[in-house]
Design a protein that fits this description.
Blueprint: E1 5-7, E2 10-13, E3 18-23, H1 26-29, E4 33-39, E5 46-51, E6 57-59, E7 67-72, E8 77-82, E9 91-100, E10 105-111, E11 115-120
Parallel strand pairs: 2-11
Antiparallel strand pairs: 1-3, 3-8, 4-5, 4-9, 5-6, 7-8, 9-10, 9-11
C-alpha cells in the first residue's frame, strides 16, 4: 500500500491563495507523473492539474492561469499553488500517482486522503 500524505487545505476568501502539498514515497515519486484532482459535493472527481516526471504540466481550463503544479524531487513532494481562488473552487482535493500519456494524465490506483478547500464569497 502506497501512502500519500496531503496538507495545506483550509478556508480562504475569494481572491485568496493556498498551497497544497502531497508527500509521496521516494521509491515511486521520481519515476511517476502526479496529478491533483478535486471533487465537490454531488459532482464527479475531476483532474485539476498534472505533472510528468520530467516536469511537463497540463491544467484544466477552469484553473489555467490561476493554479500552478510543481514538484520537488529532493523532497518527494508535489505542490499545487492556487491563486485568485473562487467559490467554485471549493472541493476536496486529492493527489494521485499515475502516468503521463501523449496528451493526457492517466490516474493510478494510489490516492491521498484528501484535503478540503473552502472558498467563501
Amino acid at each position: 500500500q502506497v501512502q500519500l500524505v496531503e496538507s495545506g487545505g483550509g478556508l480562504v476568501q475569494a481572491g485568496g491563495s493556498l498551497r497544497l502539498s502531497c508527500v509521496v514515497p521516494g521509491s515511486i515519486f521520481r519515476i511517476s507523473a502526479m496529478g491533483w484532482y478535486r471533487q465537490a459535493p454531488g459532482k464527479l472527481r475531476e483532474l485539476v492539474a498534472a505533472i510528468s516526471s520530467g516536469g511537463t504540466t497540463n491544467y484544466a481550463d477552469s484553473v489555467k492561469g490561476r493554479f500552478t503544479i510543481s514538484r520537488d524531487n529532493a523532497k518527494n513532494t508535489v505542490y499545487l499553488r492556487m491563486n485568485s481562488l473562487k467559490p467554485e473552487d471549493t472541493a476536496a482535493y486529492y493527489c494521485n500517482v499515475g502516468a503521463m500519456g501523449l496528451s493526457t494524465y492517466i490516474p493510478g490506483d494510489f490516492w491521498g486522503q484528501g484535503t478540503q478547500v473552502t472558498v467563501s464569497s
